């Protein structure tokens, strides 16, 4: 997810370039998202009164971080729709069906980074292209850099967590049902949640 492209927004008026940061330069390299220690999920209002939460168990991604020139950093994520899990099998089956994601015809949800801006400290806003079914639209994700660590196996890890909100109808997810008391069964607004751990690839 362009999740990791660190620079200020460019505008018609040139902005100041951030000074080189040796700590960031040390992060330069290619990384693979570790699905066993990462989570990509969502929260949506159900029946106007409560929230349903779900995750996608199968996903993969690649990050290319350039600490000397953060604007050149890139990232991608591919999510397998059929791996959706809300804890209720019948509901998961409905979400995989043509009423929602149509997982058989459109098996992947993807995100491709395009740009990012530093909001201050370790907080960033990343923009990219989100594709669901056959619709691609821009998406901005607010995220926080959680730091780096070397795990017990000697892997160099970096971590990010973030969120974004979308209107699912803009990606063709329009199924709904009216409630007798007013309102609808499923909110149009969906919150996406990202908790990412990535391992630096061997040189």
Describe the structure.
- This protein has an 8-stranded antiparallel beta barrel with strand order 1-4-5-7-8-9-10-11.
- It is elongated and about 60 Å long.
- It is mainly beta and 203 residues long.
- 6% of the residues lie in helices and 50% in strands.
- A hairpin with a 2-residue loop joins strand 8 (123-132) and strand 9.
- The chain has helices at residues 22-25, 89-96, and strands spanning 29-33, 39-46, 50-56, 59-65, 74-80, 84-85, 108-120, 123-132, 135-150, 156-167, 186-200.
- Residues 1-20 have low confidence and may be disordered.
- The two termini are 22 Å apart.
Strand pairing plus helix content: what structural class?
Answer: mainly beta
Cα-atom Rg, whole angstroms?
18 Å
Succession of helices and strands = HEEEEEEHEEEEE
Please give the number of β-strands.
11
In helices, the fraction of residues equals under 10%
Q: Please give the order of strands in the largest beta sheet.
A: 1-4-5-7-8-9-10-11
Distance between the termini: 22 Å
> pLDDT below 50 for ≥5 consecutive residues: which ranges?
1-20
Count of DSSP H/I helices: 2
Shape annotation = elongated
What oligomeric state do the depicted chains represent?
Answer: single chain
The average pLDDT is: 85
- Share of β-strand residues: over 45%
Largest sheet: 8 strands, antiparallel, barrel
């Amino acid at each position: 997810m362009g999740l990791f492209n660190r620079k200020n927004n460019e505008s018609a008026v040139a902005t100041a370039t951030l000074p080189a940061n040796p700590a960031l330069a040390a992060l330069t390299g290619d990384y693979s998202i570790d699905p066993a220690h990462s989570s990509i999920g969502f929260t949506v209002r159900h029946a106007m009164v409560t929230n349903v939460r779900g995750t996608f168990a199968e996903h993969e991604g690649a990050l290319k971080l350039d600490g000397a020139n953060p604007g050149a950093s890139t990232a991608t994520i591919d999510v397998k729709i059929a791996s959706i899990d809300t804890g209720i099998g019948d509901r998961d089956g409905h979400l995989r069906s043509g009423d929602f994601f149509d997982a058989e015809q459109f098996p992947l949800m993807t995100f491709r980074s395009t740009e990012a801006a530093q909001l201050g400290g370790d907080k960033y806003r990343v923009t990219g292209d989100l594709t669901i079914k056959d619709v691609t639209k821009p998406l901005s994700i607010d995220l926080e850099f959680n730091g780096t660590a070397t795990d017990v196996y000697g892997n160099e890890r970096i971590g990010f967590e973030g969120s974004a909100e979308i209107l699912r109808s803009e990606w063709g997810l329009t199924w709904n049902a009216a409630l007798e008391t007013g309102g609808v069964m499923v909110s149009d607004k969906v919150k996406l949640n990202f908790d990412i751990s990535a391992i630096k690839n061997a040189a």
